[in-house]
Amino acid sequence: MNIRYAFKRSLPVMAGYLVLGMGFGILLEAKGYGVWWAFCMSLFIYAGSMQYVAVDLLTGGASLLSTALMTLMVNARHLFYGISMIDRYKEAGAKKPYLVFALTDETYSLVCSGDVPEGVDKNWYFFFVSLLNQSYWIAGSVAGSLIGSLLTFNTTGIEFSMTALFIVVFIEQWKSTSNHLSALIGVGASLACLLIFGTEGFLIPSMLAITIALTVFRGSVKKR
Fold it and tell me: Rounded distance, CA 44 to CA 29, Å?
């Protein structure tokens, strides 16, 4: 029951992750890194957009410091995701380390979108959703790498597929709830920080602004 419900809920993510993972695998293969790189990066890093960025870091010979700073900027949002999941994961027991590691934007969306139905253990649901989502990503990455080794084509623009997925997730979240305050806060804070700090430095300030705003308006969000 737990894994069946998790699989049903994760089907939209599967559709996205298989395609996005293939894009990553193809891009990685085009830069000269084979299928084992795709598999290991998706197994041990599992960072979606950061994996796309890592391709350029690998091929560009970036320093360890540059890589660390770039990783912090790209994945800073997960710090705030993690803080919000403390109560939700507090009874996960031995599954908690993996749940923390496997928390992506899409997994966060599934875990936070409503309560699980009667007969489904929430902690096992969280675990299976996380595991299935990573499995989709690994499968897509490996398939993309294999396809990329057999076919030669122009990969320009393929990295935009990750941005497209974020847009779809946002739209689905908007349609699934009548309370759009948190979404409007996120969009407003991001646009404001983009105008103030520019494209290179807006990410962390926008995350801080969103966190502060959601903390201030927490009561209003809950009531609505």
Answer: 18
pLDDT tens per residue, range 117-172: 888 888 999 999 999 999 999 999 999 999 988 877 676 776 676 677 667 767 87
Measured on CA atoms in the order 196, 197, 203, 208, is the torsion positive or negative? negative
Nearest to 92 by CA among 50, 140, 124, 128: 124
Listed in sequence order, the residues at least 6 apart from 142 whose beta carbon sits closer than 8 Å to its beta carbon are: 21, 25, 35, 38, 39, 42
Task: Write down the pTM of the prediction.
Answer: 0.73
DSSP string over 139-208: HHHHHHHHHHHH-----TTTTHHHHHHHHHHHHHHHHH-S--HHHHHHHHHHHHHHHHH-TTT-HHHHHH
Six token digits for residue 200: 């290179």
Do residues 210 and 76 lie in contact, with contact meaning Cβ atoms separated by under 8 Å?
A: no
- pLDDT of residue 28 exceeding 60, the answer is yes
Question: What is the Cα–Cα distance from 52 to 212, expressed in whole angstroms?
Answer: 29
CA dist., res. 110 & res. 116, Å (int)? 10
| 161 contacts: CB under 8 Å, gap ≥ 6 | 19, 20, 23
pLDDT of residue 46: 92
DSSP-derived secondary structure letter, 3: H
